[in-house]
Specification:
Number of strands: 9
Number of helices: 4
Number of domains: 1
Oligomer: single chain
Mean pLDDT: 83
Largest sheet: 6 strands, antiparallel
Low-confidence stretches: 1-21
Strand order of the largest sheet: 6-5-4-3-8-9
Shape: elongated
Structural class: alpha+beta
Strand content: 35-45%
Length: 183
C-alpha cells in the first residue's frame, strides 16, 4: 500500500514538474545598465518558451513581432516620478521556406539563422542597447529601471489577431523586471 502511495505521489510530482518546465511564456532573467564613454547601455536576458502553435505559425510564414520596452525613472516624494528614459525596440521573426532560414530583424539590421532554436536564443539576449546619453542621468540618487518583452499581437494579420484574443497561445508577455541603477 505504501509503495503504491509513493508511486502515485511521485507520478503527480513528475507531472507538475513536466508541466512547469514546458510552460510557454517570457521570463526576464537578468538586466543591467552600464555607463560607458558614449552613454548608458542596456544588457538583458529573457527565457522565452514558444508554444508549438506559435512555432508552427512562423514556419508557415506568419511574421511575429516582439517589443522590448525599457523605462528609467527617478522617484520623487513631492510629485510624479521623473521618467527621463522610455524606449521600445521592435524585433521581427520571419521564416523563408525557399532558403530554409529564419530571420531576426530590428529596424534595418537583421541576422539569419538555420534553426528556430537559434533565432529564439538570439531574441532572448539584448546586448549593448544605447538607452541614455552620458549626461542624461543626474549623479545623485538611485534610478528605478524596468524592462519587459511581449508579443505584439496588433501587428499580426487580422485573422490571427482574432485568434489571439481567444487563445492563450498568442498572449506571450513577460512581467516588468525592475532593479535599481546608480549612475
Amino acid at each position: 500500500m505504501r509503495l503504491a502511495l509513493r508511486a502515485l505521489l511521485f507520478a503527480i510530482g513528475a507531472f507538475f514538474l513536466a508541466t512547469a518546465a514546458g510552460a510557454e511564456g517570457i521570463t526576464p532573467i537578468r538586466a543591467k545598465v552600464e555607463a560607458g564613454a558614449d552613454g548608458y547601455r542596456l544588457d538583458a536576458e529573457f527565457d522565452i518558451r514558444f508554444s508549438p502553435r506559435l512555432e508552427e505559425a512562423v514556419n508557415r510564414g506568419v511574421a511575429l513581432y516582439f517589443v522590448v520596452e525599457f523605462e528609467l525613472s527617478k522617484p520623487r516624494w513631492y510629485w510624479f516620478d521623473e521618467r527621463p528614459v522610455q524606449l521600445s525596440q521592435t524585433y521581427k521573426i520571419t521564416y523563408t521556406p525557399l532558403l530554409r532560414q529564419y530571420r531576426l530583424s530590428a529596424d534595418a539590421a537583421y541576422q539569419n539563422f538555420t534553426s528556430f532554436e537559434e533565432v529564439v536564443a538570439a531574441l532572448s539576449r539584448v546586448r549593448g542597447w544605447p538607452v541614455a546619453e552620458s549626461g542624461a542621468l543626474h549623479k545623485q540618487g538611485d534610478y528605478q529601471a524596468a524592462i519587459r518583452m511581449r508579443l505584439d499581437t496588433t501587428q499580426l494579420p487580422k485573422p490571427f489577431q482574432l485568434n489571439a484574443v481567444a487563445s492563450s497561445d498568442w498572449n506571450l508577455a513577460s512581467d516588468w523586471y525592475r532593479w535599481s541603477v546608480n549612475p
